[in-house]
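[job 0412] stage=fold_complex status=start
inputs:
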Amino acid sequence: MELYKENQLKIYNSLSKTKEVFTPITEGRVGMYVCGPTVYSNVHLGNLRTFMSFDMIFRYLLHLGYKVRYVRNITDAGHLESDADEGEDKIAKKARLEEIEPMEVVQRYTVNFHEVTKKYNFLPPSIEPTATGHIVEQIEMIKEIIEKGLAYEVNGSVYFDVLKYSENNHYGILSGRNIEDAIHNTRALDGQSEKRNPQDFALWKKADERHIMQWPSPWSDGFPGWHLECSVMSSKYLGEQFDIHGGGMDLKFPHHECEIAQSHSCSGVQPVNYWLHANMLLLNGQKMAKSTGNNILPEEILTGENKILSKAFGVGVVRFFIMQAHYRSILDFSDEALLASEKGFHKLMEAMEVLKELKVAKTSTFNVTDWKNKCYQAMNDDFNTPILIANLFEAVKFINQIKDDKASITATDLELLQNALHVFVFDVLALVNDAKEQSSDKLEGAVELLIKLRKEARENKDWALSDQIRDELADIGIQLKDGREGTTFSVN
RNA sequence: GACAAGAUGGCUGAAAGGUGAAGGUAACGGACUGCAAAUCCGUUUUUUAUGAGUUCGAAUCUCAUUCUUGUCUCCA
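[job 0412] stage=fold_complex status=done
writing structure:
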């Protein structure tokens, strides 16, 4: 029997602002759309946190036995710069500055994005569509919205008529914004804009001659508005109504609000059942953003090449650090916090190694079944990974106690424990034991030899030599650990 | 100015009315050890930004104040 049948998953829905029992439209199947990166620069750690949160959610849904179609787009066109109506396409602007082709920029940063997600042990999405690959569909959707009377053309550009839409629909349903108030406050000032109303947003923008990225359309040679691509691609691959739509908190308004308006205009139904928003990662108390320069790149953490870091950190440490906070909470990034996570992460990984060689007994002094249920309860409660991790450390303590003969476990329980830990640590949280990967048979042989030499030195009470071996190994990141059964080592 | 989220111990971060406020990290003491580290045991904030209120009972609900973050708008 599939696990989802015995686990009642609850998800916090941004639309209703409450935790709701998750019931997919089609039993056993989940359609999930997540707003992907805009590929005009390298993804920073803040971007990565959002995608990592949804990677974890994707993984847990898969673990529960759902067949998931996970669509995460690549925005490679149409992202209007800032909030300025006369803004140019972000991709095109970067291209002009660097004097290269727009698609070259797109290619470079798409490759970078894929490299980073691979390094950080992300599962690839089922479909990764691009905006430029769906210009035809976007034009079709604009036509449809115009036909419904909810968009209008001015000088070759097409705008969504928010006022008209809100006559019969609730614009602001997701973000909690009140459109009447907004219009009231801004009615006095009109002028240079060609829009009927300041709240209207572009579906199609006419491009000027210097604008490199442009496509023909019935209205002008131009490019699509940013919000349109997600409406088009989600409905194309997941249908007019689908289960989960995710993205960063900062996309709630206007992006997701506009998306709902566009999709709803065409289909007449609410496009998404569960809206999920991952919270921001803060650096120096500020949102990380490429536009302000307040950011750190995922690659820089792995090499330590950033002024706020005291050293390099592994992929597993970063994932662990991020998973220690709930995805809906703001998370503060700092060197100190990462150092603390590293210690905890190594402790967990050590226990995973110890787990492989535990001796079994006739009785268990720990209720493994109860413990496992607690882990599932944590995940079923809106993917509460911090609680899950707290539970994992309960198991770590137990494992170490067994090693010290202060606790015992039966063969059946041991298997249960091993399987459950493997699922949560490696399948769901997708932690990577970096240290273990750095180690090799040859290294192991060499260190074992040094351990043997040190043992002889200690037997001869040659403390100087034994400490030299220990300390110099420690300097290069190999830690010796003297236990009752002899000396073992770990690579940090 | 509007809307939204939040303010928890040295750091990080859970817990959404019910006895001792999770977990990681840090610090201190003990066991172990030649000494450390690792591991195990114990201790550390009488307390949840501040001030009121509701309640038999609040970190959790209400109000006010201060501050932080995000988004929008306006101005430039």
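[job 0412] summary: Chain A has three domains: 3-282, 296-435, 439-491.
[job 0412] exit 0
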